[in-house]
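Problem: given the chain below (98 residues), write out its structure.
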Amino acid sequence: MFVSSFDRMYSPAEWRILELAHRRACTMLDRDPQFHPLAERVACAIIFFFERGERDFGRLASMAVRREQSLLKTNSGSTAIIQPSSVRLGCDPPRYLH
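Solution.
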């Protein structure tokens, strides 16, 4: 069985917080948490804020949604397609948190 470095970094309780935050953020953005092309970017934002000390899944979700909306608003005037890797936060999360 393959075990990523992320599996060793977080406890089961921490993974649960990350998963709940990701699901809530994707729901707030009306995105499928597993299949939407930008779901990974949302997961990365959640991990980014989690690593800076936030542990409340509701606040993590809200912070990630605000960040995503800001990115979408910033890029709305451009003709470029927003790619999941277009803005990196310095982390490489697993494909999805679920």
